[in-house]
Amino acid sequence: MSEATPAGAGRGTILVLNGPNLNLLGTREPEKYGTATLADVEQLAKDAAVAHGLEVECFQSNHEGALIDAIHAARGKAMGIVINAGAYTHTSVAIRDAISAVHLPTVEVHITNVHAREEFRHRSYLSDVSRAVIAGAGVLGYRFAVDYLAGLQTSQD
Ligand code: CA2
Predict the structure, then answer these.
(1) Which of 73, 76, 55, 59 is nearest to 10 (CA)?
(2) Of all protein residues, whose CA lies closest to atom 13 belonging to ligand 1?
(3) Region 65-69: what's the mean pLDDT?
């Protein structure tokens, strides 16, 4: 997969995207998804980025098209994308195509270990168009994803 950030554009910003139902984080099913709210997760990602001299832009939507629009808008604006597409991970060819189209290094994040859950969660349409996949590390996965993308700026791993 070839990836490019246009010269002078978006070198310092990481887009953090959260998909359907992740606005409920911290308010329901804490045994599965923990007690951190979406605001906590976004702050955690921001803090991680600041430690690397970067910024994050955060967006959550319950709508597939809105997530796709945000991915398109990242082109030329962001140096990478962290995405937890929620259940769209397992269904959305459209989000996959958007990730493919923008040629930005993307990290797929899941709070839970999707491979230890129902069979339908084992299939991801996003994994093979992503540079890295982090699952089961809880909300810390977002920090690891930001750290990884920050590392790409210096090493071309
Ligand atoms: O483990 C993850 O991060 C998931 O992406 C979460 C999705 C699920 O469909 C994926 O298979 C794995 C579900 C997000 C729902 O988030 C909620 C948070 C709190 C309460 C209820 C739902």
Answers:
(1) 76
(2) 86
(3) 98
Give the tens place of pLDDT for each residue, 21-57. 999 999 999 999 999 999 999 999 999 999 999 999 9
As a whole number, mean pLDDT of residues 104-108 equals: 98
CA of residue 93 to ligand 1 center, whole Å: 18
Write out the catalytic residue numbers. 33, 110
Please tell me the distance between residue 129's alpha carbon and the centre of ligand 1 in angstroms.
Answer: 20
Query: Mean pLDDT across the chain, nearest whole number?
Result: 93
Q: Cα separation of 141 and 108, whole Å?
A: 9
Nearest CA to ligand 1 atom 6: 86
Whether residue 116 has its Cβ less than 6 Å from ligand 1: no
* CATH code for the domain defined by 13-113+125-156: 3.40.50.9100
> pTM for this one?
0.94
Classified as helix, coil or strand, 80 is strand
Give dist(CA 56, CA 64) in Å, integer.
Answer: 21
For the record, the structure tokens of 4 come out as 């490019």
| Domain positions in the chain | 13-113+125-156
How many whole angstroms from 115 Cα to the centroid of ligand 1?
Answer: 13
